[in-house]
Amino acid sequence: MKTILIILDGISEGKFEQLNNMTPLEYANTPILDKIINEGIHEKTCFYPTNRDPDSLVCILSILGVEEKLIPKNRAYLEALAAGINIAYDEVVLRCNLVSIKNNKLESFNAKGLTNSEMKDVTKNTISDESIRFYHISDYRNLIVMKRSDEILNLVDMPPHENVGQSIDYMLSHIKSVDSLNDFIKNNRYKLNDADYMFYPWGVSEKTILPTFLKLHKKSCSCVCSAEIVKGIAKAMKINLAHLENSTGDTDTDLLEKSKAVLNEIKNHDTVIAHINGTDEVSHRKDLNGKIKFIEKIDREFLKEIYMNVGKKTKIIIVSDHQTSSITGKHEKGYVDIIENIT
């Protein structure tokens, strides 16, 4: 039996009084998803190990059957792998967000107020010494590659999307021990459109080896995704990556292109993984109404195309990797949705 696994990143969260005590997924108008539920099952589960925080790296690898002991601490290496950046064993990789600052506090984790082209232009002017290799990946996302050291490996993880509103001085306090990073931050602060921006390094990651999907499941697999972390997971696990022209890792993604890619890939593979990241991004922005509208768009432009055209003997599994709150903008612990058709 063939399987289409659809991961709707961060789509699950708690119930809202203003949504008649329903979750955004329950409240949204989703006739196709409702059909799949009525014909199959809708359950709740958790994908993160008890001693790990719920994030896409941990939860997606758990969904794919990777043992907890093999799941890396952070994801930057896999994002570098996705971007084709070579990392030596004596090097580490850090994620590096372009963030906005207001009143010396973290206003946004994603360069609020700048267009994607403006974000890219800012990265062209970064100043760093020879100890830092800086790479722009997409939008507000960047990577820093440095030589491994105990000081860097011991840096405290302080994810910007979990700390909006926090004092910048506090956010940077743990980085002061690494002179080159401290200098990089000081030398790359910008004022654009009357707003303040800076680069914030975090999430130290080392080179990682993961088991292949074929070895784990004895099945061929292809992946339809745009988010760098999922591309990196696919490359590390020797999963084929479908080519996409117009899809992104946000709500502006081309969902019809993704649905057509899924239908094309399932012809030649036992399993197709489809990942949609916009549900997570819109939740981080604390946009409840935007999340509901995007869920409805997924149903209308993505799920409908697949449901109407996939073979009857193909299993469709729709899951959320973790909860992302539209109120706090943070990943939350708790149960997530898993929906399957009955073939």
TrEMBL record:
<comment type="similarity">
    <text>Belongs to the BPG-independent phosphoglycerate mutase family. A-PGAM subfamily.</text>
</comment>
<comment type="pathway">
    <text>Carbohydrate degradation.</text>
</comment>
<dbReference type="GO" id="GO:0004619">
    <property type="term" value="F:phosphoglycerate mutase activity"/>
</dbReference>
<dbReference type="InterPro" id="IPR006124">
    <property type="entry name" value="Metalloenzyme"/>
</dbReference>
<keyword id="KW-0413">Isomerase</keyword>
<feature type="domain" description="Metalloenzyme">
    <location>
        <begin position="1"/>
        <end position="338"/>
    </location>
</feature>
<dbReference type="Pfam" id="PF10143">
    <property type="entry name" value="PhosphMutase"/>
</dbReference>
<dbReference type="InterPro" id="IPR017850">
    <property type="entry name" value="Alkaline_phosphatase_core_sf"/>
</dbReference>
<dbReference type="Pfam" id="PF01676">
    <property type="entry name" value="Metalloenzyme"/>
</dbReference>
<keyword id="KW-0324">Glycolysis</keyword>
<comment type="function">
    <text>Catalyzes the interconversion of 2-phosphoglycerate and 3-phosphoglycerate.</text>
</comment>
<dbReference type="InterPro" id="IPR004456">
    <property type="entry name" value="Pglycerate_mutase_ApgM"/>
</dbReference>
<protein>
    <submittedName>
        <fullName>2,3-bisphosphoglycerate-independent phosphoglycerate mutase</fullName>
        <ecNumber>5.4.2.12</ecNumber>
    </submittedName>
</protein>
